Amino acid sequence: MRCAAALLLVCTILVDVAGRATAAEPPFGLSHVVEKARTLAQRAFTPPPAVPESWQKVGYDQHRNVVFDRNQALWKDAGNFRVELIHPGNVYTHTVAINTYDRAGVNPVTFSTSLFHYEPNSLREKVPKDFGFAGFRMTYPLYRRSEWNHVVVFAGASYFRPVAKNQVFGLSARGLAIDTGLPSGEEFPAFTEFWLERPSRDATSVTMLALLDSPRVTGAYQFVLRIAPKTVMEVKATLFERKRVTELGIAPLTSMFFYGEERARPAGQWRPEVHDSDGLLIHSANGEWLWRPLINPDRLLMNMFQVDGLRGFGLLQRDRAFSAYEDLGAHYELRPSAWITPIGDWGKGQVKLVQIPTANEYNDNIVAYWLPGALPPVGQPIELAYRIDVESDDPVPAARGRTTATRVGDGDAAGVRRVVLDFEGGALKQLGATADVKPVVWTGPEGQLTQQNAFKNTVTGGWRLAFQLKQQKGKPVELRASLQHKG
C-alpha cells in the first residue's frame, strides 16, 4: 500500500528546473468555469458583443441561406459527435466564444467566413473581421452511420433545444429564467462562452461547459448529453447573484400553445390543434401527479403550484395522433416532451407556469420552471443538478391512470361552461360501468359547480368526468378534478 501511495505522489507533482516541487494543474473542467463565474460576479456587468445592426436586419429567410459547411464540422474525423457552428444575425444579436478542450488543454475556435456558404455571396463582404458565432449544433448519427443528425442546439440567450430519435424540434430549455412575467420586466441571462470536450471515437455522450452572465446573475454550467439508449441531458450549475433577483427560475422550459381541443379553433384555421406541448405535469414527493392542460389565454396568466418535495416536472406533448394536427410540414405529433428530474433535495418551492397570449404559432408563449423557497445570501453559490429526459413516452407509470383530453364548451344555461375530462390507463380499464367511481372537483371562489358526474367511456375503455361551472364574468377560475374509486 505504501508503494502504491508513493507512486501516486510521483504522478501528481511536477519539478521545475530549480528543483521546486509544484502541484500539477488539473485538466480543464467545470471547476475552472465556476471560478470564472465567481470572479465575474464580483465585477460590474458588461453586455456580450453585439452583432452589427446590418446583420440584425438580415431577414429570416436570408439568414437561413447562410449555411455552415458540414465538411468543416469540428471533430469531423473523430467519431460519433460533430459540431456545426451557427452564424450570427437576424434574431441572434450577440456573439459567443466557442472552445474545444481535452486533457492537453483548451483550443479556441476562430470565426472565418470560409466556414459558411453565403447566398447571395455579397453577404460575405458585410462580415466584420472580428465576428464571432451565434452558437452551435451538436450532431450524432441517430439513424445511419453515414448521416449526422442534430441532437441539440445552443443559440440565443441561454436557450438550448434537445431532440431525440423519431422526433422533430419543438420546445426549448433555458439555463435560467429571471423575473419572468413580472411587471418589472424579464431579465434574459445569456451563455457567453462554451467549452466543448472532445469525446472518444465510440462515445455515446458528450460534455459541454458554459459560462452564463446577466446584469444580476452569473453561472457555470455543465451539460452531459447522452444519446443511448435514449436522449438525456444531465445538468450541473453553480450560480452567483450580483444583486438579489425577485424570482430565480430553475430548469426553465419554454414552449408554444396556439390552440387545442379545449376550445373552438380560431377563425380561418384548418388544423384541429396547433401546439408544441399540451400540458404541464408535476410529480410531488407525496406521490401526487398533477396535470395542468395548457391554454392560450386572453391575457397574461401565471399560476403557482406549491410543492414540498419535487420529484419532477415537465412540459409534455401527450396527444401523439397525427389526426390531432393534420400538419405534414410541422408534425406536431412528433414534438418532444421534456421531463425535469431534480438530483438531490431541492427543498420546498413552487412550480410556476406562465402563459402568454399569442395570435399565431410563431411565438413561444409558455414557460414553466422551479422557484426555490429560499436562496442563500447574495454572493454565496447556488448549486443545483438535474436531468432532462427528452421523451415521447409519458413519465406517468403505465399502471396509473392519466388525463388524456380536456374539452371546454357551453353549458346548459347562459353563463355556464361545460368541462369534459377523459382519463385512461392503469386500473381504469378494468373498472366496469357499475364500479363505484366518483368525481372529485374543487373550484375557487370565482366559480360555482352546478353539476358533476363520472361514467365509463365505452370507446376508450377509460372514464370520463364531466361537470358544469358558473363563473363570475371576466374572472378566471382555478379548478382541480380527479376520480376517486372505492373498491
How is this structure best described in words?
The chain has 487 residues and is mainly β. The chain folds into two domains: 53-391, Beta-galactosidase, Chain A, domain 5 (Distorted Sandwich); 402-485, Immunoglobulins (Immunoglobulin-like, Sandwich), CATH 2.60.40. 6% of the residues lie in helices and 42% in strands. The strands form seven sheets. The protein has an eleven-stranded mixed beta sheet with strand order 6-5-13-14-15-16-27-24-23-20-21. Strands 4, 8, 9, 10, 11, 12, 17, 22, 25 and 26 form a ten-stranded antiparallel beta sheet that branches.
- Overall number of strands: 33
| Spatial strand sequence of the major β-sheet | 6-5-13-14-15-16-27-24-23-20-21
Pick out the low-confidence regions.
1-22
* Helix run count: 4
Give a short summary of the structure.
This protein is mainly β and 487 residues long.
State the main characteristics.
single chain, 487 residues, mainly beta, Beta-galactosidase, Chain A, domain 5, Immunoglobulin-like, 2 domains, eleven-stranded mixed sheet, 4 helices, globular, disordered N terminus
How is the secondary structure organized here?
Blueprint: H1 2-11, E1 13-15, E2 21-23, H2 30-41, H3 53-56, H4 60-64, E3 67-68, E4 82-86, E5 97-102, E6 105-108, E7 116-117, E8 135-140, E9 149-155, E10 159-162, E11 172-174, E12 177-178, E13 190-197, E14 205-213, E15 217-226, E16 232-241, E17 248-255, E18 257-259, E19 274-275, E20 279-284, E21 289-293, E22 301-307, E23 310-316, E24 337-342, E25 349-355, E26 366-372, E27 382-391, E28 402-410, E29 416-424, E30 437-443, E31 447-456, E32 463-471, E33 479-485
Parallel strand pairs: 5-13
Antiparallel strand pairs: 1-2, 3-7, 4-8, 5-6, 8-9, 9-10, 10-11, 11-17, 12-17, 13-14, 14-15, 15-16, 16-27, 17-26, 18-19, 20-21, 20-23, 22-25, 23-24, 24-27, 25-26, 28-29, 29-32, 30-33, 31-32
